């Protein structure tokens, strides 16, 4: 006998309808409500909200678990449909650039470029966490040791996702522009608002390690790269010789810092002195050779090209940074001082903050006297890690329990 929609027990059909209804409701709220999206309260309001949500789940489990709605929310169809909706939005997070203005008015109106703060994401998150929480409580009471792996996995996931959601309002991501010799205590948030920090940072020294500059062949008329094979269009000046189209190029002399004197370059130790190289170019089809200079230029000097024919010229690209770092001194309000070196992906941790090497004055290159340092504070991250460790422990328990169970079956003990 065919079951009618909304006839108990509910199944995947109702789950799809509920998920679609939440998406529709979220879109309507996103478009017509005066605020730009869903906003969680700051500490301690987000903590109170989390405790109220947890109390609501316990109330639904102990007082209303016999109702059709609560039974279904703790069922597999609810888990699958809510997880599918949540994962679908997570895929959109990876496809649509977040935190940037979009050229599409639909993306902007629906909040898809600010998805984690949209009403659609908030409702999907609530749907998934409610189903996950009730399913966990269903296995928790009464407690059985064989359910420990399931409980650790599901409770850990619930804790990690809930803490990440509640802590999003307390997450601070700021950037500070530090100039050598000038202590700085002011930072800027994503909207450009000035924030005074409890610590001051003084940039002691900024250093860049660069790759050798690269050479390529350009069309004199269009200014575009003339080599059709982009993989073989660039060669380092560290190479002794290489071929570009019908030309063999040899690097005779490389000057890391040089200045133009007449029609040649000489070593110069000045701020902004760019690299230069003397080249010998041989046309393979005719055997004719010629020599000349190229330079990448800098914020102070124009680039210098080597015109090898009426059609082509050799040019040097600006050197790319291999590694850059900042030597800093951090000063707290209590008078403490700490010196450290910041590198990319090697942050400094201090007082609940993480200091990252973010950027520098790119136009000045290795002569930059300014370093951009990112300051991140996420007080909820230990709770997120707790949930992750619980999931790892649950996976280990399931693996161990499954191994013992398999041995028991093989020995005829089960």
Could you write a compact summary of the structure shown?
The chain has helices at 12-32, 45-63, 68-73, 76-95, 105-109, 119-140, 148-167, 381-410; strands spanning 172-179, 184-188, 194-210, 214-219, 235-236, 241-244, 247-255, 258-261, 264-267, 276-283, 289-295, 306-307, 312-316, 321-332, 337-343, 348-350, 353-360, 370-377.
Written description of the protein model:
The chain is 35% helix and 29% strand. It is of the alpha+beta class. The protein folds into 3 domains: 12-171 and 382-410, no CATH class; 172-208 and 322-377, Tick-borne Encephalitis virus Glycoprotein, domain 1 (Sandwich), CATH 2.60.98.10; 212-319, no CATH class. The strands form 5 sheets. The chain has a 4-stranded antiparallel sheet with strand order 1-18-17-16, with no helix packed on it. The protein has a 4-stranded antiparallel sheet with strand order 2-3-14-15, with no helix packed on it. Strands 5-4-13-12 form a 4-stranded antiparallel sheet, with no helix packed on it. Pfam families: ResB. Keywords: Cytochrome c-type biogenesis, Membrane, Transmembrane, Transmembrane helix. Residues 302-361 form the ResB-like domain. The chain crosses the membrane at residues 12-33, 45-64, 76-96, 116-137, 149-168, 380-399.
């Amino acid at each position: 006998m065919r079951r009618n929609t909304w006839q108990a027990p509910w199944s995947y059909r109702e789950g799809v309808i509920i998920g679609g209804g939440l998406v529709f409701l979220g879109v309507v709220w996103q478009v017509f409500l005066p605020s730009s999206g869903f906003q969680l309260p700051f500490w301690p309001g987000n903590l109170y909200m989390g405790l109220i949500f947890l109390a609501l789940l316990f109330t639904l489990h102990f007082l209303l678990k016999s109702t059709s709605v609560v039974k279904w929310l703790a069922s597999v169809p609810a888990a699958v449909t809510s997880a599918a909706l949540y994962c679908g939005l997570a895929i959109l997070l990876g496809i649509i650039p977040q935190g940037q203005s979009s050229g599409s008015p639909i993306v902007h109106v629906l909040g898809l470029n600010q998805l984690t703060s949209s009403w659609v994401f908030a409702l999907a998150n609530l749907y998934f966490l409610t189903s996950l929480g009730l399913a966990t409580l269903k296995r928790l009471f009464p407690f059985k040791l064989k359910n420990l792996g399931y409980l650790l996995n599901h409770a850990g996931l619930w804790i990690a996702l809930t803490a990440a959601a509640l802590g999003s309002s307390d997450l601070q991501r700021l950037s500070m522009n530090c100039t050598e010799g000038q202590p700085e205590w002011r930072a800027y948030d994503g909207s450009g608002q000035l924030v005074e920090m409890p610590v001051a940072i003084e940039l002691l020294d900024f250093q860049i390690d660069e790759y050798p500059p690269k050479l390529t062949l350009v069309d004199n008329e269009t200014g575009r790269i003339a080599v059709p094979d982009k993989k073989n269009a660039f060669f380092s000046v560290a190479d002794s010789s290489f071929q570009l189209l019908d030309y063999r190029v040899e690097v005779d002399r490389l000057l890391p810092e040089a200045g133009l004197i007449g029609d040649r370059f000489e070593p110069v130790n000045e701020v902004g002195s760019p690299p230069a190289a003397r080249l010998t170019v041989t046309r393979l089809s005719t055997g004719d050779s010629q020599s000349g200079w190229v330079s990448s230029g800098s914020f102070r000097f124009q680039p210098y090209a080597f015109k090898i024919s009426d059609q082509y010229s050799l040019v040097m690209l600006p050197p790319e940074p291999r590694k850059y770092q900042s030597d800093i001194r951090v000063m707290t309000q209590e008078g403490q001082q700490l010196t450290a070196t910041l590198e990319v992906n090697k942050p400094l941790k201090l007082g609940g903050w993480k200091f990252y090497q973010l950027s520098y004055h790119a136009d000045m290159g290795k002569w930059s006297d300014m370093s951009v340092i990112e300051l991140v504070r996420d007080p909820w991250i230990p709770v997120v890690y707790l949930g992750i460790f619980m999931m790892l422990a649950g996976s280990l328990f399931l693996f161990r329990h499954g191994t013992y169970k398999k041995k028991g079956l093989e020995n005829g003990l089960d």
